[in-house]
């Protein structure tokens, strides 16, 4: 298998699908954080890996790179349109060991997914869940005894930032959380994940956290794209669409040369283990 990271990078530079380039750009910015988590988990060639709420790309490319041609990666997402997009992305990148499944993770059993799995991954997934303990318990049940779970979820209290500051970044981050919580997500689920993990019967192996810091040009473009991509969710929840549009435009209109750097939100990084 050709190097997956190189294929992703090449598409970002030369691909003809602007939205796919945006999605892969987000994945590439967070790829090092994902790789660090997977290496702590001991992910190796031949492992079976599960990406929970994979979205259009999630950690699929990095996992495919690490488990190699003898491994298997399964992504699960509840939105049929997102699953169709993820299948297109993985086909474009030639990720032959990746399968993307359409369904609710809480209702799919291990046999249907091809488990049990050696490792599972959650990024930007548990923050949307109404009962994170139940979701963590469900993911744990899909792992083999001793299997690992890598969680990288952003906390509400520490939004994306820029220097000098750009108020629209914190404003859109707060608005997205308000919309998620009004739709039933637990309040600041990411911040409570260590407590939730223990309640779900999982062992905490590592706990840390980090920001991603990128160039202003890249960071502003990614944040503006994220706000625009959230528009449909805000509209479906009856949220302030005009406000989300205004924030997207404010970020889009910001001059990268006015800023030294732009960051992601703060991600809590946990490595959990299903007891043997």
From TrEMBL:
Pfam families: Methyltransf_31 (PF13847). Residues 46-156 form the Methyltransferase domain. InterPro entries: Methyltranfer_dom (IPR025714), SAM-dependent_MTases_sf (IPR029063). CDD domains: AdoMet_MTases. It comes from the Bacteria. This is Methyltransferase domain-containing protein. The lineage of its organism: Bacteria, Bacillati, Actinomycetota, Actinomycetes, Pseudonocardiales.
